[in-house]
Write a structure and sequence with these properties.
The chain has 201 residues and is mainly alpha-helical. Helix content is 56%, strand content 10%.
Length: 201
């Protein structure tokens, strides 16, 4: 498994952090922001340099926010065998937090292989899509957002979702589960687009 930082280079190598979080997940069966903070608290801990420990600068809730940012910024990398210079990435750890519970993260290959967790991941995707719709409603007087979304999704799904997520990123034994999950997500996006069209969005 190869890890890298997506947009911000932390002072600790992404590979070390990814492998350490995998180990925490194996030990505890899940990862929470508070667990990450507690694990990093000792001076010699691997992830200690990633947090602000001066209490006059950052309280514990802020450090939990830092933990969430770390998981959001950590991605898995797949190097193309035919084109070594070409890499593809996907978020390494995803939220599997049920409604009104504390944040919980699992490795994406585990989350997408278990039906209950997979449904939470897809529900989060639906919520993000709806948030995006609301965000851009004000622009709909200037362009057809439904057509824009449909065109974007058709290109992205054809070139990225089906290939990258189900064939290149995960091992073969996980690919069928991932493919099925994201086919479900594709239908969710299509249904959202139709709903938006009905609202003249």
């Amino acid at each position: 498994m190869v890890y890298k930082w997506k947009t911000f280079d932390y002072s600790v190598p992404a590979q070390d952090v990814g492998e350490h979080l995998e180990e925490l997940d194996r030990i505890y069966g899940e990862i929470t922001p508070q667990m990450m903070v507690d694990d990093a608290r000792p001076d010699g801990a691997l992830m200690h340099p990633l947090y602000e420990w001066r209490d006059e600068v950052a309280a514990e809730k802020y450090r939990c926010s830092q933990a969430k940012a770390i998981t959001s910024n950590l991605v898995r990398v797949k190097v193309s065998e035919s084109e070594p210079q070409k890499t593809e990435t996907i978020r390494a750890f995803v939220s599997v937090k049920p409604h009104n519970e504390q944040a919980k993260y699992r490795p994406i290959q585990i989350a997408m292989s278990e039906p209950n967790m997979r449904e939470i991941v897809l529900e989060n995707a639906r919520a993000e899509l709806d948030a995006m719709r609301r965000k851009y409603e004000a622009l709909c007087n200037y362009f057809n957002f439904t057509d824009f979304l449909t065109e974007y999704l058709s290109k992205a799904e054809a070139k990225t979702v089906k290939t990258t997520l189900s064939e290149k990123i995960v091992p073969d034994e996980e690919s069928d589960v991932m493919a099925g999950a994201f086919q479900t997500e594709e239908r969710t996006y299509a249904a959202a687009a139709e709903q938006m069209k009905g609202r003249n969005i």
